[in-house]
Amino acid sequence: MANTYAISKVVGTSEKSIEDAIDNAIDTASKSIKNLDWFEVIESRGYIKDNKVAYYQVSLELGFRYDKS
Question: Looking at CB atoms within 10 Å, which of 7, 21, 25, 39 has the fewest?
Fold first, then answer.
């Protein structure tokens, strides 16, 4: 059975870690987008304050399936 997918680009942020930024992005997107199946990290970056990492920012592409109805 073949599926058809669309891709949405989102950016997640976190003061804790890159993984937490990914989780935040997926959690927020899942409230609006149905049938999320996969993600790909496109780029990661962060913000430095007082010579320390202040927060992480991760750009993701999220793949989601179209309904077959």
Answer: 7
Q: What was the pLDDT predicted at 68?
A: 81
Q: What is the pLDDT of residues 17-42, one digit of tens each?
A: 999 999 999 999 999 999 999 999 99
Strand partners, 37: none
CATH architecture of 5-65: 2-Layer Sandwich (3.30)
Q: Token pair for residue 66?
A: 């179209």
- Reported as a pLDDT band with limits 50, 70 and 90, residue 69 is confident
C-beta atoms surrounding 22 within 10 Å:
19
Considering just the CA atoms, what is the radius of gyration of the chain in Å? 14
Give kind and range of the element (H or E) at residue 20.
helix 18-30
